[in-house]
Design a protein that fits this description.
This protein is of the alpha/beta class. The chain has a single domain, classed as Rossmann fold, CATH 3.40.50. It has helices at about 35-40, 65-80, 95-105, 125-140, 140-150, 155-160, 160-175, 175-185, 215-225, 240-245, 245-259, and strands at about 1-5, 10-15, 20-25, 45-50, 85-90, 110-115, 205-210, 230-235. It has an eight-stranded mixed beta sheet with strand order 1-2-4-3-5-6-7-8, with helices on both faces. Helix 2 (about 65-80) packs across helix 3 and helix 4 (about 125-140) runs antiparallel to helix 8. The protein is globular.
């Protein structure tokens, strides 16, 4: 389905029944990455899955973007659909958007899941993300497929699940260059740790034990600053823990949301 949100042609899908949960994907992906979670969640929840600005089937407007802008896009979609309150699950960039949404519009969120994400950019964050944006602009998204997959999955998973890597690699390659580069600019400036100290939503912070893209320490910092949050480290998983350890990830999420 499509809707115009903040002047943006936005793609979203709704399935299932029950309380609302909204899923927000990583950089250089789309809502397609949530398929294993949707299959489980739709039995208990009404699942809203959308493509972030500049990704998937949502329009890529000229950048740079900000996380505040991306959070306001999500808030606008919730308002358009007349969703007064929703659970939120965001991974990587989706987790960053969820943090900003909770800070800016706390009333619209119930329980929050932040997976494989960070609340503050490292000292070299701006330069690192600018370098990746420049690579995308100069050589196209195809040049980012292999190095990104190398960060996102453990080596044993590369060998045992070639089809998953092929599908995620296709999502990376299909991401509009402008959308990717514009979101890189937003990610490089993330600075949420002080803002989340004011939050009181029940929160589950999850991270793969081999996630070197957003290391365990980054999730520990979110957990430390988010009052009453719970931290879960998923064994034998890198950055896309939702795909590498589907069973454990799904069970942890459902137990948290229904507990």
């Amino acid at each position: 389905m499509q809707a115009t949100i903040n002047g943006l042609d936005t793609h979203y899908e709704i399935t299932g029944s029950g309380p609302w949960i909204t899923l927000s994907h990583s950089l250089a992906c789309s809502s397609e990455m949530w398929k294993p979670q949707i299959e489980v969640l739709k039995a208990h929840f009404t699942v809203l899955c959308y493509d972030t600005r500049g990704h998937g089937k949502t329009q890529a407007t000229p950048g740079p973007y900000t996380l505040e802008q991306l959070a306001d896009d999500a808030h606008g979609l919730l308002a358009h659909l007349k969703i007064e309150k929703t659970h939120w699950m965001g991974l990587s960039m989706g987790g960053m958007i969820g943090q900003v949404l909770a800070i800016r519009h706390p009333e619209c969120l119930d329980k929050v899941i932040i997976a494989d994400s960070t609340g503050k950019a490292p000292p070299n964050g701006v330069a690192m993300w600018e370098e990746r944006a420049v690579l995308a602009r100069s050589k196209g998204m195809a040049a980012l497929v292999e190095p990104t997959l190398g960060r996102w999955f453990t080596q044993p998973f590369h060998q045992s699940h070639p089809q998953v890597l092929k599908e995620i690699g296709a999502l990376i390659a299909a991401t509009p260059v402008e959308g990717y580069a514009a979101c890189c600019a937003a990610i490089g400036l993330i600075d949420n740790l002080e803002g989340i100290t004011k939050l009181h939503h029940p929160a589950l912070i999850m991270v793969g034990d081999q996630d070197f893209a957003t290391p365990i320490a980054a999730s520990e910092a979110i957990h430390k600053n988010w009052n009453g949050s719970k931290l879960t480290v998923i064994k034998d998983a890198a950055h896309l823990s939702n795909l590498e350890q589907v069973k454990v990830y799904n069970e942890t999420v459902v137990n948290f949301l229904r507990g």
